[in-house]
Amino acid sequence: MASSRPRLALTLGDANGIGPEILLRALAHDEVWSVCRPLVLGRAEILKDVARAAALPCEIDGAQLVVGGRAAELIEIDVDVDHHPGAPDCADAGLLAGRTIECAAQMALVGEVRGVVTMPISKRGLNAGGYRYPGHTEMLAAIAGGTPLMILACSTMRVGLVTIHTPLADVPSQMTSGRVAATIRALASALRNDWGISAPRVAVLGLNPHAGESGTIGMEEVESIAPAVQLVQREGIDARGPYPADGFFARYHADDWDGIVAMYHDQGLIPLKMAARGGGVNVTAGLPIVRTSPDHGTAYAIAGRGVADERSTVEAVLLAAGIAERRATAPETEGSQEGEPGVP
To answer: Is the pTM of this model over 0.90?
Structure first.
């Protein structure tokens, strides 16, 4: 039945990036319609411009966006944008992006939609539009509440981050034992509640080369990471480590682990994106709403050329629908964990 499929809000992202194109391309996939009822938030004129430039089958019929003969609900966001595909960090595009995120999150909070899938935004554009957040994750946390954890996922790997958009020089000072433990707990909780893994196995990476070699190449493993692993083990979580990151990924096998905790952005996301090959998904766990996103940015260099790859967006929709269904049918979902996982 159509009504049994979760209603998902899809935001336009940065209008001058590839967000509008990958949104339209994703809506041409049968599997997207088989798992959800999409609702699009954005500007009709921008969608029509992008569809014409990319030769995509798209029509606007009142409050509907018709793609390939199938109609999605369309909510017009009242922000005028001087649409120039490929133009970076424009304030009007940032304002539109921010408004769509706000609208989608509020709809999810009151139950009008069961999840949000966000197209890529420019952090500088978002800031220029008046929204002072480092990115989607932090903005959604401010709107929806909860303690967010950024997880990047694909079919063979799920990576949670202790720090996200943090300068590398600042990472060690933010890696307290409490923060590492909170990230492990939050990832384990998401694996149970959102992926349906009853007893998740979590690998925890070290920060330094060779995981510090017992303190000879840095003390973070001894002072923060190992104590955090031991703490959550006593709480019943199957977490192990810290492991040297290079050796861990060199020998990684998907059947051995359900999730990985990385200490900083590139440590975990370079291997994940190599494994995903364009199909990775960004998941914000720990919020009262479901939120996913493609694992890439605005790609201004190819915006307007009709060559953007929608695979990550399709996967983001499929995962959001799956998480929404699991949360709806779970007998009881866990509350937020204490601590501050994944927020710089």
So the answer is: yes
